[in-house]
Structure formats: structure tokens, C-alpha cells
Amino acid sequence: ALVSDALLTDYASLMFDYVNLDRPVVLHLDDIEAYEAARGTYFDITAFPPGVVARSQDELFDIFATDHWRGSRSAQLRTAFRARFCPYDDGYAAERVVRRVFLGETDGLPRPVPFSARRTPAALPAQDGAGAAVGG
């Protein structure tokens, strides 16, 4: 079981797996220009982020202080990222590969399940400004 309400990351590929949990992702990219110059990237993560992006510590603090990390914009970014990069991550991807590639099967393979038809994780509890759960 995974116990986390959100993922705070930089360029780690973990974001591609975590986004399938439909939990908030915050990217801290305070060194993006240097990172791209030194290592290169396959795509512009700021154009297709899985959640809100902070380019400085002040922006990062603001994202958490204002709850932007789990707001509607964060959910929209997560949905678009998942549709673009994770359309086959439905719990049956490995089965499809094994049956097609290793067993040579072409019929009766599990069809990809749209994200909207999958199990919905529990919602995050509302919190006050100090991070304590509110409500009942």
C-alpha cells in the first residue's frame, strides 16, 4: 500500500507511475534551464506537467500554503498528463504484452480500460491552514 497524499518531485520518472493514483503531483523545477542544458529532455515538462509547477522555493511554499497543489487546476493537469502519457496503465498492460509478444495471442486480449471507468481512490480530507483535518 502507498501512503501519501501527494508527490513532490523534480524530473523523476516516478511521476508517470504516481499520476495513475490520481493524487496531486507538484513539480519543483528551480533548475530547469541548467538541467535541460546538461542532460536534455524528451519533451518540455513545463508544457505538459502532471501537476502544478514551482520554479523557486517561494513558489513552492505558495503552492502548498494556498492549496493549489490539490486544486481543480492540479486535477486538470493530472488528467491531461495521464491521457497523453499513460493511456494503457490500467492494470492489464503487462498481461497484454505477455499474451501478445510471448504467447503470440491476438484474440481475446484485455482491452484498455478508460481511466474514467477505473476504481476511484478516496478523496483527500479537507485541512485547515495548519494542516489539521477539518470536518467529520
Descriptive tags:
single chain; 136 residues; mainly alpha; Rossmann fold; 2 domains; 5 helices; 3 strands; globular
- Separation of termini? 24 Å
Provide the CATH topology of the largest domain: Rossmann fold
Classification by helices and strands? mainly alpha
Which bin fits the share of residues in helices?
A: 25-40%
Q: β content, as a range?
A: 5-15%
What does this protein structure show overall?
With 136 residues, the chain is mainly alpha-helical. It has two domains: 1-86, Rossmann fold, CATH 3.40.50; 87-119, no CATH class. Helix content is 34%, strand content 7%. The protein contains five helices and three strands, in the order βαβαβααα. The chain has helices spanning 14-18, 32-39, 57-65, 72-85, 93-102; strands at 7-9, 25-28, 52-54. It has a three-stranded parallel sheet with strand order 1-2-3.
List the helices and strands and how they pair.
Elements: E1 7-9, H1 14-18, E2 25-28, H2 32-39, E3 52-54, H3 57-65, H4 72-85, H5 93-102
Parallel strand pairs: 1-2, 2-3
